[in-house]
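Entry 14. Structure prediction run on the chain below.
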Amino acid sequence: MGAWGMAPWDNDSAADWFGDLFEAAPLAQFVEETLRRDARASPDQVRAAAALLVMLGRTYVWPRKALEGHLALAIAQMKIVREAHQGDPEWETAVDSELAVLEARLANDPSAPSPPRPSGWERFWSR
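Output returned:
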């Protein structure tokens, strides 16, 4: 078994465990179903689903075949959520920081600067 970093998902054994988890529980499917809701009618649920991608939407954790599509969907929906809260700087800042994480993950560009840490997410944060 190989390890390539210090994060809890940066080794073969953990990657296999996450694969087993997503096979056993329909979490990715439930997230996708939520992200396909009308973001204007269900902004809190859409943001909650996107939050799981902020935390878990990374290679070796999220199901590989679904990751790119789920990240793209979350980004599109979070832009609608942001519009729903225009004029509220605190909300805009929070959603913008979450969007930055999702966009960086989708770009998968190691030379890209680190996005800002999501507000209040310090204990979950790691790029």
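The helical segments are 12-24, 27-35, 43-56, 64-84, 89-107.
Filed with the rest of this week's runs.
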